């Protein structure tokens, strides 16, 4: 897709970045339809070319003097402290990062793309995995606001929410393993770093859009709750760099991978989904957990195999945990035990397990078609035609709805449900063919 002129603000910010510890070579900011800003190859690039380097001292972390000066309680999260810092600086023309801030998406832009701001009826129609992520996001944001609001009395909840979401969508995961403890502009290195300790905002780097390239879709690993941070591939003790992963022609968009994220995660955290995503998966917990007897739940908990069951479109389709639970549901317990203990690869039982899975997926496929009807009805202009779904679980009470659905919101929701339908139907067809 063609790269469009970025506009004055972006050129000014790029010049500022070059004077403030950011080395940029062969790339430039540009606009892309449907993705906001991104990075374009400004000349032909070779695999391995260093494209951008940001010095550690140009990062914004809780140890940056401009953040430290607020003396926020260290008992508050780093996400919250960064959001509070950005909110306090928001109206200041003298802030050192005023030019950077001018190129971020607007609050209005976020209202369209981020499910956090969507009307309640749209939130209730999100896939369950996305609803759960949204509820977690809301809980974290509310807690940060509760913990920090008394130290930022001039800041409204609405501004704090915006800057908190700026931090979510533009922050890098930074575990600074090699850094000396002594440097005053760097966070103290702790023995054990928690994900929350590892936030860093990174000027110019946050122009890169995401693709799934570089993901390792290992079907044996079910997706754990991923970090809500943009993860860049290359970092060293001097700062962050991005190196070309392949050759690029001038004019092509250059992406990075934010991590092995499903489309439900990308939708809630970043407000978009990929058309094709090697890392996509859908959870099967809602389908499988109700089938378990209490004694089976005990066995699975004891073995560490309770919940977190996922389906992908690559063989063996159902992840290792799902393969295990399906064995417990369909076979004598000793066959399940042998599989879990890895004393048997389970191949002789695969046919029976697949047949059971096929039945479950056919039922799921019918439910998805019903949901798709509900989502399509939302975009139907006549309000009498709109049906509220009784099949979808209720929205967690903490979600904050706004206004009525926009066309963009309808479109992305519909596209996501069609993707889920296609994942399930692809596996149904594959299992039918192999049986
Ligand atoms: C780190 S910022 C990237 C720069 C951003 N596009 C901008 O306009 O400033 C992350 C945001 O970019 C957008 N984005 C990133 N990758 C995308 C993609 N592949 N397709 C659509 N939007 C994308 C999402 O809005 C996301 O919240």
Automatic annotation (TrEMBL):
GO molecular function: protein-lysine N-methyltransferase activity
Matches recorded under Gene3D superfamilies: set domain protein methyltransferase, domain 1
PROSITE patterns recorded: SET (PS50280)
SET domain sequence ranges: 20-259
Residue numbers spanned by region Disordered: 376-407
Residue ranges of coiled coil: none
InterPro entries: SET_dom (IPR001214), SET_dom_sf (IPR046341), SETD3_SETD6_MTase (IPR050600)
Biased composition regions of type Low complexity, renumbered to the chain: 392-406
Pfam families listed in its UniProt record: SET (PF00856)
Annotated protein name in UniProt: SET domain-containing protein
């Amino acid at each position: 897709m063609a790269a469009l002129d970025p506009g004055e603000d972006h050129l000014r910010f790029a010049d500022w970045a070059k004077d403030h510890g950011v080395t940029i070579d062969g790339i430039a900011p540009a606009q892309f339809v449907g993705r906001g800003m991104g990075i374009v190859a400004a000349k032909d690039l070779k695999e391995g070319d260093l494209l951008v380097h940001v010095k550690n001292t140009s990062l914004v972390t809780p140890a940056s003097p401009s953040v430290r000066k607020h003396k926020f309680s260290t008992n508050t999260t780093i996400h919250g402290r960064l959001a509070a810092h950005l909110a306090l600086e928001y109206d200041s023309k003298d802030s050192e990062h005023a030019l950077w801030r001018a190129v971020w998406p607007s609050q209005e832009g976020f209202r369209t793309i981020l499910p956090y701001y969507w009307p309640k009826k749209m939130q209730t129609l999100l896939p369950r995995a996305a609803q759960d992520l949204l509820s977690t996001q809301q809980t974290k944001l509310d807690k940060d606001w509760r913990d920090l609001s008394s130290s930022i009395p001039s800041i409204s909840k609405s501004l704090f929410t915006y800057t908190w979401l700026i931090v979510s969508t533009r922050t890098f995961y930074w575990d600074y393993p090699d850094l000396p403890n002594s440097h005053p502009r760097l966070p103290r290195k702790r023995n054990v770093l928690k994900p929350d300790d590892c936030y860093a905002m990174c000027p110019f780097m946050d122009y890169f859009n995401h693709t799934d390239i570089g993901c390792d879709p290992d079907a044996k690993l079910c997706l754990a709750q991923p970090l809500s941070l943009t993860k860049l591939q290359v970092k060293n003790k001097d700062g962050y760099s991005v190196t070309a992963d392949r050759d690029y022609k001038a004019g092509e968009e250059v992406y990075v991978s934010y991590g092995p994220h499903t489309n439900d995660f990308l939708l809630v955290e970043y407000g978009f989904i990929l058309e094709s995503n090697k890392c996509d998966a859908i959870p099967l917990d809602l389908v499988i957990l109700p089938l378990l007897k209490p004694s089976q739940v005990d066995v699975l908990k004891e073995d560490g195999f309770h919940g977190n069951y996922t389906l992908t479109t690559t063989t063996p389709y159902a992840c290792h945990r799902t393969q295990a639970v399906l064995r417990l549901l369909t076979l004598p317990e000793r066959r399940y035990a042998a599989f879990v203990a890895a004393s048997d690869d389970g191949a002789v039982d695969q046919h029976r397990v697949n047949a059971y899975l096929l039945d479950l997926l056919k039922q799921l496929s019918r439910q998805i078609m019903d949901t798709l009807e509900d989502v399509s009805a939302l975009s139907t202009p006549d309000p009498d035609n709109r049906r509220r779904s009784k099949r979808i679980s209720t929205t967690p009470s903490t979600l904050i709805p706004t206004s009525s659905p926009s066309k963009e919101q309808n479109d992305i929701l519909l596209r996501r449900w069609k993707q889920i339908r296609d994942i399930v139907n692809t596996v149904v067809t594959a299992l039918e063919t192999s049986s």
